[in-house]
Amino acid sequence: MRIVRPVVAGQDRVGIVVPIPEPEAGRLGALRARLGDEFAMVPPHVTLVTGVPVTDWNAVVDHVAAVAAAADPFTIQFEGTDTFRPITPVVFCKVVAGGDRCTSLHAALQAGPLALPSAYPYVPHVTLAQGLDDAVLDQVQEAQSQDRWTLQADRISLFGDVGDNDWKLRATFPLGVS
């Protein structure tokens, strides 16, 4: 697979995620929109890699395709909430099963053309609220604390950003298919 849109070397950043399908995507997106979260337009997802600068999209696409082909589909189970506060103002759905598979994908993806040290340890999660005041984050964390749901992770999506936080889907790769 090759990228259709031309890119300027050194300007793009990559994001690789496990997309969240409906009906959970709509439910989680609507929650963020109701809260006035400035990132509500970002579709719900489990981040695998983000913000890594890209100079050779073809190498990245080949790398992501190879990692996806080598990984079998798996189940991710979410239960309850947690937060990254006080480091960052984020409340998220906790992964209670399948996190090890997300971590393995993260490690495999963040190699080769995407090798870049992470600023923080990798924690698989789905963001519920970000950048809001503590009282709102506390309310979200409590209100969603009993939430339980499951996701069949059968694909990963590759996004690109040219530095304007306007992430565009570049390609989607099924897991376990070469």
TrEMBL record:
Keyword Signal: no
Matches recorded under Gene3D superfamilies: Cyclic phosphodiesterase
Native organism taxonomy: Bacteria, Bacillati, Actinomycetota, Actinomycetes, Micrococcales
Keywords: Ligase
GO molecular function, one term: ligase activity
Organism whose genome encodes this protein: Galactobacter caseinivorans
InterPro entries membership: 2H_phosphoesterase_YjcG-like, Cyclic_Pdiesterase
Protein name: 2'-5' RNA ligase family protein
